[in-house]
Amino acid sequence: MIPIARPGIGVEEQEAVLRVLASGQLAAGPLVEEFEQRFAEICGVREAVAVSSGTAALHLALLAHGVGPGDEVITSPFSFAATANTIVLVGATPVLVDIDPDTCNIDPALVEAAITPKTKAIMPVHLYGNLAAMDRLLPIIEKHGLILIEDACQAVAASYQGRMAGSFGTGCFSFYATKNVTTGEGGIVTTNDPAIADQVRLWRSHGQRERYHHVAIGYNMRMTELQAAIGNEQLKKLDRFTEQRIANAAYLDSQLSDVVKTPVVRPGYRHVYHQYTIRIPEARDAFADALRERGVGSAVHYPCPIHLQPYYRDRGMNLSLPVAETAAQQVLSIPVHPELSQDDLETVAREVRALCQSR
């Protein structure tokens, strides 16, 4: 079976972890600081603050910007639940607007109409490794004086006109096991505002500015040295991982674009293909089952939009977002990760193409 994802963990990561274990310093220390510095340089920002997960990054970014009860945050319904959940966790209200049918990212044409006097922030999701339409969103954000928090959990090294994800506003990234760069579990917040970075550092460590002196009620959301040891080795491989994903996607495009809808990349945007997602207009789940029988793994990201999740539906979120609802029935991610061999790629393309032609 060709898996939908396979972490690119090598001997370098293994040896780095063993060095940490031998050192006896497992909690946050110099390796976390090194990881933060490297990641800030990659994103082209002044500050990066490592945390325990992508969810923690979103949560702490919202808190650092003072988003809370009475505030609204505009975001996408087509994302992992953490995008909206973290808004709820700080006491604010997620306002969901529909998505662009080509990219599955938030539709800028619908954002401005959703702004009210309660709107404090916009949280676009850079889905599948492809930036939201920043060229259209930034003027809206600037016009209304809103906070921009980028859910870049799937978009390490993605860019628009050379400007990196996480550098347009406050960026939030995930290093979960299947992400383009992994620390096993982990996250980071990027910003050009030292005050925001200071607040994230405060909130991630029980509100401490110095040990055992608490100036706020915070959380335990720190990254460990073990995670950072893996992450530092992964960042050395980031360029290679990214170029391989892009090359794999280009091959899949060349083999599949005439039989199925393949990812759309608009001019100026660099898609880093956390997922390579096609659209199967009918009987998507049966297609995935048949593909599995042919030895090719796949996954659906995401089968249920946020506004149809039981938690939100049961609490009165009564929305019709037809583009997101249609996408949820059609999207199918197929293998694109850099651990694929050429034989794997050819098998993926051949089997997907054969199933498309047989329908």
Could you explain the architecture of this structure?
This protein has 359 residues and is α/β, with parallel strands linked by helices. The chain folds into 2 domains: 11-96 and 104-236, Type I PLP-dependent aspartate aminotransferase-like (Major domain) (Aspartate Aminotransferase, domain 2); 239-358, Aspartate Aminotransferase, domain 1, CATH 3.90.1150.10. It is 40% helix and 14% strand. The protein contains 13 helices and 14 strands. It has helices spanning 11-23, 30-43, 54-64, 82-89, 108-111, 134-144, 194-204, 225-236, 238-256, 284-293, 310-314, 322-330, 342-358, and strands at 47-51, 72-75, 93-96, 119-123, 147-151, 159-160, 163-164, 170-174, 187-191, 208-210, 213-214, 269-270, 276-279, 331-334. The strands form 4 sheets. The chain has a 7-stranded mixed sheet with strand order 1-9-8-5-4-2-3. Strands 7-6-12 form a 3-stranded antiparallel sheet, with no helix packed on it. The protein has a two-stranded antiparallel sheet with strand order 10-11. Helix 3 runs parallel beside helix 4 and helix 9 (238-256) runs parallel beside helix 13. It is globular, with a radius of gyration of 20 Å. The mean pLDDT is 97.
